[in-house]
Structures are given as structure tokens and as C-alpha cells.
Amino acid sequence: MGVSKTHMFSLTQNELAQAAKVLAHPARIAILEYISRQENCICNDLVDVIGLSQPTISQHLNEIKKIGLLKGTFEGKNLCYCINQERWEELQHSFHVFFTNINQNCC
Amino acid sequence: MGVSKTHMFSLTQNELAQAAKVLAHPARIAILEYISRQENCICNDLVDVIGLSQPTISQHLNEIKKIGLLKGTFEGKNLCYCINQERWEELQHSFHVFFTNINQNCC
DNA sequence: ATTTTATATTGCAATATTACGATAATATTA
DNA sequence: TAATATTATCGTAATATTGCAATATAAAAT
């Protein structure tokens, strides 16, 4: 039907899937990489760098924000997006656990 | 428009996004976790375990197969799905590089 | 050869995602 | 205050994803 039956799965499974969904678009990968390269974290040239329209970039940023990966000032001019280090390491850990816990000794 | 403008991004960015997309559904996380727990890699009870219909499971398995994460026998009865260890470690490495290369010293 | 068992494919409906133009909102600058 | 610059939101169109019923396919068992 197009609706993910999230209730059938564990919280951990859903959270990992949701994080993966945010990374599941090259624009969002590119945005995260670009923000991380900025010294001063003023990211108002994101539109020019990525090459998508301003509303689209805004939408992607919102997806990234929703899982808590960005922190900083979000209002007005000269807004300042930065990677939320704690959240970032949290996700990194989740992916790491997932990848290392998979047992591959078969076949 | 609903089409990802993949041509605007690097191969690395697209590949990571594509891998993330496969992990972006709790059913596929659950499927991978279940397969990895099986000793003998005979996975014909996946439908009962996951709780989605057989066609839906088949579809999800196909998504996982498409990025080379599964190997084994794929035809007929008693088919045998297993994690492709090499591919798995390749993806693990890609995610690891992505997570560690992000510079967070800002704000 | 027919039945049984297990997976794949097709077709369709419902929902989600991606993208952008138009416009609104907010803050800075002149 | 008016003009400018920057981001957010709304509305809409196109495409993708998710899920299942129905059906097809393939191998094994009877």
C-alpha cells in the first residue's frame, strides 16, 4: 500500500532505517560533506554548490535536521548549520553495531 | 518531479546513497539480521518471521540482492540466501569512511 | 504424472519522495 | 522606511516505494 509497516519492527530497526533514509539521497550526502568542510559554518551558498533549487535544498536540510544531525542557528540571515557531533557519533555507532553484529560465516 | 538528480553528484556519493536506501526500511534491516543469525542459511521461513506477505518479502530480498549483499542459490526450492561477506565489508568500509571523514569541529 | 512446497512475477492501489515556481517570512542594509 | 538578501512554506507535478492478491514458475515428493 505504500505505507511502511513500522509497528512490526523493533525500535532499533526502525531508528536505523530512518537514519539510513536520511542518507539515502546523494544531495543529502553532499550537503553533509559540504557543511563539514566549512570552517565558519555559514552555509548560505549551499544552493550554488549543490546545484538544486533553494526550496529543494531547504527540504533536504529539513530531513537532516529532523533526525537531529544539525545544530546551530536556524533563523534569519546568516544562519549557521553545523553537524551535531553527539548525534553524529550516535548514528555512527548504530551503523557500526549493525555492520559488525551481522554474522557472515555461512555458505 | 520525484526523480533524483543523480548526475549532479559523484559516484561515491551516489553509491553510498544507494546502499543507504537499501537499509532505509526496517523490514530489510530485519531480513539481514535474520539471515545472519541462521546457521544453515536456509531462509524459507522469512515470511513467517518478518510478518509481511511472501511477494513483499520477495521484493525486499530483491532490493538487497541488487546491491550484491546476498549470495547463494537463488532458484527452485530450498534456496539459500547468505550475506556476501566481501560486499558487506565493502559497504561497512564506505559508511565508516563517510562517518569518520566528516569534520565536526565547528560551532 | 500429479500434487505439494517455495519463490518469483505481474498488476494494481495507496502513500512517500523529489523537485521547483510562487510566495511568505525574517533580518540586514541603504 | 524601503530595498535587498536569505531561508521557509505552500501548492503542485512527476516519479518512487510499499504492500498484497493473483498468478506463474520450479523443484521435490508422492
TrEMBL record, chains A, B:
<dbReference type="GO" id="GO:0003677">
    <property type="term" value="F:DNA binding"/>
</dbReference>
<dbReference type="InterPro" id="IPR011991">
    <property type="entry name" value="ArsR-like_HTH"/>
</dbReference>
<dbReference type="InterPro" id="IPR036390">
    <property type="entry name" value="WH_DNA-bd_sf"/>
</dbReference>
<dbReference type="GO" id="GO:0003700">
    <property type="term" value="F:DNA-binding transcription factor activity"/>
</dbReference>
<keyword id="KW-0238">DNA-binding</keyword>
<dbReference type="InterPro" id="IPR001845">
    <property type="entry name" value="HTH_ArsR_DNA-bd_dom"/>
</dbReference>
<dbReference type="InterPro" id="IPR036388">
    <property type="entry name" value="WH-like_DNA-bd_sf"/>
</dbReference>
<keyword id="KW-0805">Transcription regulation</keyword>
<dbReference type="InterPro" id="IPR051081">
    <property type="entry name" value="HTH_MetalResp_TranReg"/>
</dbReference>
<keyword id="KW-0804">Transcription</keyword>
<dbReference type="Pfam" id="PF01022">
    <property type="entry name" value="HTH_5"/>
</dbReference>
<protein>
    <submittedName>
        <fullName>ArsR family transcriptional regulator</fullName>
    </submittedName>
</protein>
<feature type="domain" description="HTH arsR-type">
    <location>
        <begin position="8"/>
        <end position="103"/>
    </location>
</feature>
